[in-house]
Design goal:
This is Aminoglycoside phosphotransferase domain-containing protein. Pfam families: APH. InterPro entries: AGP_Transferase, Aminoglycoside_PTrfase, Kinase-like_dom_sf. This protein is an alpha+beta fold and about 300 residues long.
């Protein structure tokens, strides 16, 4: 586990290690390596008769995951720098997450690629039907242990709610998928309430529910930001890791327990129940109610 040696003043809480973005020269060199490996991956998948369709995105019109030999993959992402930094941060904290070997940013519009290790197994979404409720609950206990583990680390950005590198947030759980850095959880929540402001007179009870959190204080911790069954890996009934850290950042402590898949509840209701009921989630029942009220009052502003 790699940590910054400094600790919070007067505190034994270790400050999380966050890598700096790579230089333009390293980005160019990584691009050369990844381009060669993309060709290797094409040959490897044809030789092994590995289907590509399950990794093809209907949104980006391209293959998102390229499987390679030796337990490696190359992943396409619209924000390679932020996702690579987040994944490296999670791995350094000791979480079962991919190890980033290199990444390349092709530009703001084109996105980029990340070369990383592959977490063994398959997604919980693909395999959940083969597990009993008791087995699913045991898996979610292990996921909860991961969320509690990262709470041991303080943010290097103080009380700011921000992306993994201290910049903007990218997550489905905020309007239009992106959000500017805010210097405290209180400021962040004020921005959330703006989404509900136009409906406050018509739905006074719901708006009052949403406003309850204004008077509460929270720590800022590292969060996944998009935790759901498609990002949880399992093998033979055992939890093996968490993937897809593209929405990760420094969030109020309740974030991963409160908002998972909040905008997809109609399609994933049963899965959301498992996520909400993870050990520790019961501490944030009010936060869940307030966040749900904001979703209802936002009039489709959430992605």
């Amino acid at each position: 586990m790699f940590l910054q040696s400094n600790r919070g003043k007067g505190s034994s809480t270790p400050i999380a290690w966050v890598p700096k973005p790579q230089s333009s020269w390293m980005n160019w060199l990584s691009g050369l390596v990844i381009n060669v490996l993309l060709k290797v991956g094409t040959y490897y998948r044809r030789r092994k008769n590995i289907s590509e369709e399950r990794f093809r995105s209907p949104f980006f019109g391209r293959l998102l995951i390229h499987e390679l030999p030796f337990g490696l993959i190359i992943k396409y992402t619209p924000r390679p720098v932020g996702e690579a930094i987040a994944t490296m941060t999670a791995h350094a904290m000791g979480l079962p997450s991919p190890r980033v070997l290199c990444y390349t940013d092709l530009g703001t519009i084109e996105g980029g690629w990340i070369l990383m290790t592959r977490i063994p197994g398959e997604t919980l979404w693909d395999s959940h039907q083969s597990y009993s409720d008791e087995e699913l609950t045991a898996i979610m206990v292990e996921v909860s242990d991961c969320l509690h583990h990262i709470r041991r680390f303080a943010s290097p950005y103080g009380t700011a709610v921000c992306g993994p590198d201290g910049g903007r947030i990218y997550t489905r759980a905020v309007p239009k998928e992106t959000w500017r850095r805010r210097e405290s959880p209180e400021d962040f929540y004020d921005d959330m309430l703006i989404c509900a402001w136009s409906m406050k007179d018509r739905f006074e009870e719901e708006y009052a529910e949403a406003c309850i959190l204004k008077n509460k204080s929270y720590r800022v911790v590292f969060g996944h930001g998009d935790l759901h069954f498609s990002n949880i890996m399992v093998q033979d009934g055992r939890f093996t890791g968490i993937v897809d850290w593209g929405s990760a950042g420094w969030y109020p402590e309740y974030w991963d327990f409160v908002h998972p898949m909040s905008t997809w509840c109609d399609e994933w209701g049963w899965a959301v129940d498992f996520l909400y009921n993870m050990p520790g989630g019961e501490e944030y029942e009010q936060e869940r109610k307030s966040f749900d009220a904001i979703i209802q009052l936002s009039c489709g502003q959430f992605f």
